[in-house]
Design brief:
five-stranded antiparallel sheet, alpha+beta, Heat Shock Protein 90, 34% helix
């Protein structure tokens, strides 16, 4: 599973990498994200969206794969904008019918799988997912204010 940045992106800093094997790691991910978001002057609405995405993605790792990792980065996009990037990767068996799971019309009453991914995609400024038989990697980004501790 390849979670590296696209060639057009540049990682400015990796703030934290956390293994996900227990519920307490989800809490640690959320805590570190709040601290880093504060340091980068991320607004309250964006911080709330980022923490919601982090929680959903990390809980998905534990629920569906049992283990994985998450990372908090600051990146620069090709257009020069800076983002707070969350990368969450599991070591599961991948997601069958990914396009169906990501669909807004996915029936949440009949399956818990994917109920949060459309929401994560909706609230993140940028969303990318890859899923293969050796695991799933989700990358979400949130735009940083122009003076974000650079």
């Amino acid at each position: 599973m390849d979670s590296r940045l696209n060639r057009s992106e540049k990682a400015l800093a990796t703030y934290e990498r956390i293994e996900l094997t227990h519920d307490r790691h989800v809490l640690l991910f959320r805590q570190k994200l709040r601290e880093i978001s504060h340091q980068l002057n991320l607004g309250m609405a964006a911080k709330t969206r980022a923490v919601m995405c982090a929680t959903e993605l990390a809980e998905n790792v534990l629920r569906h794969a049992g283990r994985g990792w998450c990372e908090i980065n600051m990146t620069t996009r090709p257009d020069g904008t800076s983002t707070l990037q969350l990368v969450v990767q599991d070591q599961g068996h991948g997601i069958d019918q990914l396009s169906h799971v990501l669909g807004e019309r996915f029936d949440v009453e009949t399956s818990a799988l994917g109920t949060g991914l459309p929401g994560v995609r909706r609230v993140a400024d940028f969303f990318h997912i890859t899923s293969k038989p050796d695991g799933t990697c989700v990358r979400v980004e949130f735009l940083l204010p122009s003076k974000a501790g650079l």
